[in-house]
Amino acid sequence: MPIEETGSASDFRVTFAQLDPSALISPKEFACLLGITPGAFYQRNMHGEFPRPAMSRNRCVRWRAADVREWLNGLNTASKRRGPPRKSDIR
To answer: Which Gene3D superfamilies does the UniProt entry name for this protein (predicted)?
Structure first.
């Protein structure tokens, strides 16, 4: 299910939530899901930060939606900032 050029990142996030677990997503869709540029995605993928693709033939790389969901669920949440509170935190 490709992303439309006029769509926003949040559109694919909604679509992703409804995808069948066996559906395949492209690097562009994966980057959109993470809120990063495709270039940043490729850089981070080269460093092994993402799960292994389910399909990698020639220049066609795809990940299963189920594998991506599992990877996203396994990410650590950001810990609370230590130190004195910022002015924006005090309200």
So the answer is: 1.10.238.160
